[in-house]
Amino acid sequence: MKPALSVIFFTVMSGAGYGLWCLLGLALAAGIYPLSGMGVLVPLGFGFVLVSAGLLASTMHLGRPGRAWRALSQWRSSWLSREGIASLVTYLPMLAMAWFAFIGHAGTGLRVAGALLALGALATILCTANIYRSLKTIAAWRTRQVLPLYFMFALLSGGLWLWTWLALTVGAATSLAFPLALLGLAIIAAVIKVDHWKCADALPVNTAGNATGLAMLGRVRAFEGPVTEESYLTREMAFVLARKHGARLRRIAVTLFGLAPALGIAVALAADAAWLAPIAALAALAGLFVERWLFFAEARHAVAAFFPQTQA
Amino acid sequence: MTSLPPPAKKKLGLVIDLDICVGCHACAVACKEWNDGGAFGPLPDDDPYGAEPHGVWFNRVHSYEVTADRSSENVSAPVPQMVHFPRSCLHCETPDCVTVCPTGASYKRAEDGIVLVDEDKCIGCQLCAWACPYGAREIALPHPKMPTSDAGRKDSKRGTMQKCTLCVDRIYNETLDEHDRQPACVMACPTRARMFGDLGDPDSDVSKAVAEREGFALMPEFGYQPVNRYLPPRPRRDGSGAAAAASVSAEETLDTAQLPSLLRWLDKALSR
Lengths: 312, 272
Known about the structure:
The structure holds 2 protein chains of 2 kinds.
Chain A: H1 5-30, H2 38-59, H3 79-89, H4 91-103, H5 108-133, H6 146-169, H7 177-202, H8 208-212, E1 219-224, H9 232-237, H10 242-271, H11 276-297
Helix pairs in contact in A: 1-2, 1-5, 1-6, 1-11, 2-4, 2-6, 3-5, 4-5, 5-6, 6-7, 6-11, 7-10, 10-11
Chain B: E1 12-17, H1 26-37, E2 60-67, E3 81-87, H2 96-99, E4 106-108, E5 115-117, H3 127-131, E6 137-139, E7 161-163, H4 168-171, H5 184-188, E8 194-198, H6 205-213, E9 229-231, H7 241-249, H8 261-271
Parallel strand pairs in B: 1-9
Antiparallel strand pairs in B: 1-8, 2-3, 4-5, 6-7
């Protein structure tokens, strides 16, 4: 699949924003968040920037961005439509929470808003993952790791930004449970991602014989494509560039989103070095950009089997 | 509404005979011509006369080389067979291209099963094209290298998904003579490799052809239940083909005693 920058930017940035909102909301709902007032507003606002930048970027992928509002109508059947609704509805508890934090209210209202924000964020991540997971034509996206990975990457990248805020205001080592949970999440996510790549590599590749049904007559080789030039189908669905540098890019991705944050957290906690937190958060975000680029670029679409360009 | 309609009795579609298709691309060109100039909607090109021509086609003809696996038989090398393969929307009964659409632009008609895109609703998210394993959908996006002053860029239909309409603006068009109410690709085919009809009616010509020739559906494993059917190439008349003939010629013997005297003298003269 062609890795469209708008979609990569959207899934990575919005994912981080929703992960941040989810953890902030949960901490407030549980009454364990150490700060109030601006201490809530700043990470909430940062999440707003991440989420909104991602959502705006996603409209760049549309042929007719001005009609994006129409995407809210088909929630009965379409995960993309559900995602649109979930992403807009999640702004409501965000606004309520911002208002409560602004007026200095810290009671039940804030807790309920926090719980609803976490719920909305999780629902949106679920919808995003299912947009890809529901496509039968791309086998690598239907593997069992895709859904948990979308959740983990969102919570990891967003959580690192929340921890960055806490480390810079309260101190890196004042609370151990949260950064240690993030450290564990970084390692588990890396392990599951490697497992996903292994599974995706082992998937059978659709062949011209199967695509045309001519396999019953013998060995089928695409002799000539329909046109000498590229077409929308070969550009969009028969994108083959990534597999050349796949192995190296995979190592870079895992290093940046898995090893770097894990190491950063460990050192920051041991040496009480808060300045390592934003570096870990940035590394994770960069790693996820590479991971998401590969998620698209390495995915094989069933239709590619018709074309001579992608013949094995 | 992108939920699928209840299963229709009428299933309009195409039957394509791979045995007689000669790969002339007339169907693709006729489709392009009708849908470029017809009333329903344009089939735009982004850069038709540039260095890298690029545009939307509803119908594309592939060519495949099929080599029979005959290792068990006593034939030196099987001769490959060329199969030309027109590919277009199969108007599936339960396609995901309809259900993934977030806007309701992609829909399946309840009355005859034709899958269409509502140009006025489509936002161009391309999810339907991603959901289709048959490559039936192509988006009309402006070519990045096309000059912005080009009139084509202002085309109101750009930025939306395009697909085969089964010539819905021909098959019900009462201003056309009755025998012309068929898809343009079917009308154009010089070998009559394309047939149009109701595959939901077991007594229709298309259903009979499918039953007689064991017509097959493409990639049934996706569960989309394509309506269009392909008729497989017939087996070669001589199972061993030209390769067998070639291998025999080397060992051919000539009984000169059977020849007329003039030819016997010629054989003798030429064999010297």
